[in-house]
Amino acid sequence: MERWDAIIVGAGPAGCAAAYDLATAGRPVLLLDRAEFPRHKACAGGLTRKSLRALRYSVAPVVRETVSAIVVEKQSVEAATLASRNAVCAMTVRQELDHFCLQQTRRAGAEFALIGPISGFDINSDGVVVRTTERDYRARFLIGADGVHSRVRQLLYGESPRWFWRGFALEARVYPTNGHRSDLIFDFAPVRRGYGWVFPKRDHLNVGLGVYDDSGAQKLDRARLSSYIHERFGDARVEHVTGQFLGFGAESAPKAEQRVFLAGDAGGFADPLTGEGIYGAIASGQAAAAAIDGELRCGAPAQGTFAKLTTQLRQDLQLSASGARWFYGNLDLGYRALTAPVFRGAVINAYANGTKIGALANAVRRFARIFASRPINKTVT
């Protein structure tokens, strides 16, 4: 039986990030996925500056447009524009982005194979055997990057591990009849403990509703999303209405099991405050690759390296989880403070540039009562 240095289940951003780094390091690596690419994926598809910096290659060929401002709303009369001198976010269509990243990863030397369901895997002293309905695959290490419903995570920790929790989003592609051009919008009015969004994609808009706690998932359905779209865009053409869970909880996850790592939504690396998952997917995938390469190259235990490389990311996610619970539980107060002049530029820069948005949210929490009584600044630059 052929043996790879690493098998990666899931060929999305986390899996491709890990596979690309291992392949460019000269490691035999196999990507497994049940879907043929390109495939539709429910996601707003925005790449922040921190995500673009983390990628090992340019994704310019699949960038639809870039934006340098974010409009935040709580009601139509309470809107604030947060502007930046530089581009904040690059807009992509996930179907195109994921296919492009997989192409770059295969060109770097990673192998790719379509599989059926995974029935299990066995861990021994020198590797892992992954069992599928068609055949078995053998490798030194295994990375589960197979999304929020991760089979690898289920086999490791059971169906509902205590540390893992989920959010939910419902999204559609919208084609306004009047050719309306929209800003990047976060709207905190339409749902509790979450927000609505509008992401422009040149020829269409991605419009969705999301909650950071899946206890509210049952309240999000096609009728509610359709009503929200109609309120904003009238009789626009709507396509690809898709629901998607988001994986949270990496900050509380146990230490990686021997020879098996979880990355992206499979490991709970999405941000509870913003719902952003792509950056956490890329960063955790690259960390898993570096940990595996380090052990194979110089014997440094991969579990310890992975824990060390993801420490800052997990700490930031912990702050974001705390900030999300407070912000969405005290929305009026939090929104007034979030859009106050004292935070000029800080909000948009935290969103675009770094992993400190959770810390910013907690700063807003500490000072909210002071700033809540002040009038909202309509344009923040």
CATH class of the domain at 3-54 and 92-163 and 249-314: Alpha Beta
**Spatial gap, N to C terminus:** 59 Å
Name the strands of the widest sheet in spatial order.
16-12-15-14-13-5-6-18
Shape: globular
Helicity level:
25-40%
Q: Count of helices? A: 11
What percentage of amino acids are in beta strands?
Answer: 25-35%
Order of helices and strands: EHEEHEEEEHEEEEHEEEEHEEHHHHHHE
Give the integer mean of the pLDDT values.
88
CATH architecture of the domain at 3-54 and 92-163 and 249-314: 3-Layer(bba) Sandwich
Low-confidence stretches: 376-381
Task: Decide which structural class fits the backbone.
Answer: alpha/beta
Major pleated sheet: 8 strands, mixed
Q: What fold name stands as the CATH topology of the domain at 3-54 and 92-163 and 249-314?
A: FAD/NAD(P)-binding domain
Say how many strands there are: 18
Question: What is the radius of gyration computed over CA atoms, rounded to a whole number of angstroms?
Answer: 21 Å
Describe the structure.
It contains eleven helices and 18 strands. With 381 residues, it is α/β, with parallel strands linked by helices. It has a domain at 3-54 and 92-163 and 249-314: 3-Layer(bba) Sandwich (FAD/NAD(P)-binding domain), CATH 3.50.50. The protein has an eight-stranded mixed sheet with strand order 16-12-15-14-13-5-6-18, with helices on one face. Strands 1, 2, 8, 9, 10, 11 and 17 form a seven-stranded mixed sheet that branches.
